[in-house]
């Protein structure tokens, strides 16, 4: 009897340990943001743009990054309407990006590239074109930037990169390795964004950056996006997604933080004031335990996908929620394995009790299931074989074993032996807890 019970517990422990190993492998815990030893901002626009207000908003962006955050800021204009013999805008942009990264290179830099102007989605999905004027949308390639081509030189750079585009169709660009490459746009694909002014994306961006700077700690890009949406006059829906050839939706986000006052451009930005993960006293910690219900047995691939889903939750909302860690604590045994092992144990239990007492004094074994999960055949009558009754039960139904003696047991026969208590403890609330009644309603 003990060997069957031991098999149940060994199988349960082994199954849980293997799932925990898979979950821990794919849940990427990042207690601190990446330290940037240098942050540089590139402001891009078209020279002679017909969009009123761009120049003022560029200066507002420059002011908040330069004066409030202490970042290095460079402003460059793309020159259109050039003769055929002169460098065209696409080549100009490639040259600008190369020089920008060359002159601001460091051990672990953050590059922020901001663009203000027109934009529209290309013929291919995922393409974004940046024209000098709206009327050029369906004209020649001259005076139109194909951003997807220009950004190729940003891929695989030893730097974190954040693109911020205030243009229409920004979401048309939607598609990690050791570095993060993200895009923050004013709107989704096939959407328009307000012109420069009090209701523009850039106005909301500058407002959000100033607000977050006052908090004194750094922030990740999801919080910046969330703060932008709080602006009273900007009614758009900004987008945030990963770029790059190895984009990972569960990877870390770009971290932005003010440079310490009086520091040079090469001083490290301070890290977020997180406590260590392992501390002597966890009195300030709080936790909640949830139970997830699945319509099938969970395999290792399912656990991997679950861990990656929690990655995204923590990276998107962890800072606002104070959420630091997600761990797998318990799991049920596969339904078929529970049913088979339980039958084996019950058979052994009955044989053991028969040897301990006469047949007329054997305490009956009663199956008490929750009313909401089992059929009308429960509880069984005393004449029904216990194994047949177990076979009729739904494989995932919760089961509790108790003894209901028809006569007083002889001396020395326990009504609830240690082995029975162990099975009761093993299954009650662990292997097959009661399914919430609201499920499926």
TrEMBL record:
Listed Pfam families: Peptidase_C14
Q: Which GO terms describe its molecular function?
A: cysteine-type endopeptidase activity
GO biological process terms held by the UniProt record: proteolysis
Q: Where is this region: Disordered?
A: 397-418
InterPro entries, sorted: Pept_C14_caspase
Q: Which residues form the Peptidase C14 caspase domain?
A: 51-176
Task: Spell out the protein name for this chain.
Answer: Peptidase C14 caspase domain-containing protein
From which organism does this entry originate? Rhizodiscina lignyota
